[in-house]
Specification:
- The protein is an alpha+beta fold.
- It folds into two domains: 20-148, Beta Polymerase, domain 2, CATH 3.30.460.10; 156-254, Orthogonal Bundle (Poly(a)-polymerase, middle domain), CATH 1.10.1410.40.
- The protein is built from nine helices and nine strands.
- The chain has helices at residues 7-18, 22-43, 55-58, 82-95, 146-154, 159-172, 178-188, 197-209, 233-247; strands at residues 47-52, 67-74, 101-102, 107-111, 114-123, 131-135, 140-144, 218-219, 222-226.
- Strand 8 and strand 9 (222-226) form a beta hairpin.
- It is globular.
Length: 257
């Protein structure tokens, strides 16, 4: 007779099923290397650095939902406005045969079947990692620190509930930007013990079902950037309603599988 799994054991098994394989990592690294070659050619002498900046770098990637975010750091003296640099990179990528989709601060491409978001930014000084990025939504520039974002998540004790919420998001087809989701998990779990995985996930779902739609979530690198503005009211309501339904589920198998 099979032993029943505890909620924490069940969720740990789900996480194991969604953990990227070595082959997934190799494929991601191959795409990163190939796209980086193009980006180095585009930035030329004004390149300050190229690095992964999304779930791959943060340790929160899940199988079947693995994407690649690449941050292109340009030197402070890179010529032209941030808007010019953004659209010049778009034209360059299209000239290389890549179909582009313009997002808010990133340019999205597909390469070898992998979703890639490329974010160009210009350093604000010789030292430090603060960058200026072009925002299409506001048609102006924003200041942020992508390295701080990566380190915040990578060094946190919340990566496991973050991954489970990403699985939950994917299963319901919700529009919920990853960094926004990550910050919500951290906000919801302030003061919570990280070892209580099932309780942590339920706490986050409770936050999404109640406080989420009205809570302002700010960029930890710059409080002038309101991350929660990335979604409209209808998208936030859809997330909140999905969380309410999950809170009423009779078993964990109805929440994540």
């Amino acid at each position: 007779m099979a032993l029943l799994l505890t909620p924490d054991q069940y969720l740990s098994r789900i996480l194991a099923n969604y953990t990227p394989t070595p082959a997934d990592h190799m494929r991601t690294m191959r795409v990163y290397g190939e796209v980086s070659v193009l980006l180095k050619r585009w930035a030329n002498v004004y390149l300050a650095g190229i690095r992964p900046s999304g779930s791959f770098a943060k340790g929160t990637a899940i199988r079947g939902d693995t994407d690649l975010d690449i941050f292109v750091s340009l030197k402070k003296d890179a010529p032209g406005s941030l808007e010019d640099l953004y659209y010049h990179l778009d034209a360059f990528l299209r000239g290389e045969g890549l179909a582009t989709d313009l997002r808010n601060v990133s340019i999205h491409v597909m390469h070898r079947g992998l979703s890639v978001d490329i974010v160009p930014g210009r350093k604000q000084g010789v030292l430090g990692n603060s960058h200026s990025l072009y925002s299409r939504r506001s048609e102006t520039w924003i200041q942020t620190n992508v390295d701080l974002h990566v380190n915040l998540i990578r060094e946190s004790t919340r990566k496991r509930p973050i991954c489970l919420l990403k699985i939950w998001r994917r299963l319901r087809g919700l529009e919920f930007p990853s960094f926004y989701l990550e910050l919500c998990v951290i906000e919801a779990l302030k003061g919570q013990l990280p070892l209580r995985l099932a309780n942590n996930v339920m706490t986050v779902l409770g936050f999404l079902a109640s406080d989420f739609t009205k809570r302002r979530i700010l960029d930890p690198a710059n409080s002038n950037n309101v991350v929660s503005d990335e979604l409209g009211d209808s998208e936030k309501v859809a997330i909140s309603r999905a969380a309410m339904v999950s809170l009423q589920a009779r078993s964990w198998g109805e929440i994540v599988w």
